[in-house]
Structures are given as structure tokens and as C-alpha cells.
Design goal:
mainly alpha; 85 residues
Amino acid sequence: MRPFYYVLTLLFLFGTPLIIFAMKYISSAYQARTNARADAAYRELAQRAAAAQSETAASLATVKADLAAIGRRLGAVEEILKAVE
């Protein structure tokens, strides 16, 4: 066997596991980066949802206060109408 073919065979034999290891490492690194981006996007979405929820709660409190005021006024109008009858 010629030395060139022998070295080439050894290179393929020992190079294959190294290539497989490198491909797994690159894949894991890519997945980690992708997961980090997804987590950051989810965190931003959660913050926006929390802000929208607090804004909605404030609006709901305002509407409740307005509805209570309208109810009091309506009660006063009903008393006036009953007194007129």
C-alpha cells in the first residue's frame, strides 16, 4: 500500500468523528442562539402584555366610576319624576 493512500485512509478514519463533533457543536450553538432570541422576543411580548393589561385595568376603573356616577344621576332623576307624578 502506498503511503499516500494509507495517510488518506487514516485521515478519513479519524477525521469523520471530528467532523461529526464539529457539526453537533455548531448545531447546538445555533440552537442556543435561536432559543435566546426566542426568549428575548417572548420576554418583550410579556412586558407589552403586562403594560396593556395595566392600561386596560385603569380604563376599566374609569368606566366603573363613570357608570356609578351615571347610576347616581339616574336615581336622582327617578326621584324627581316620582315626585312630579
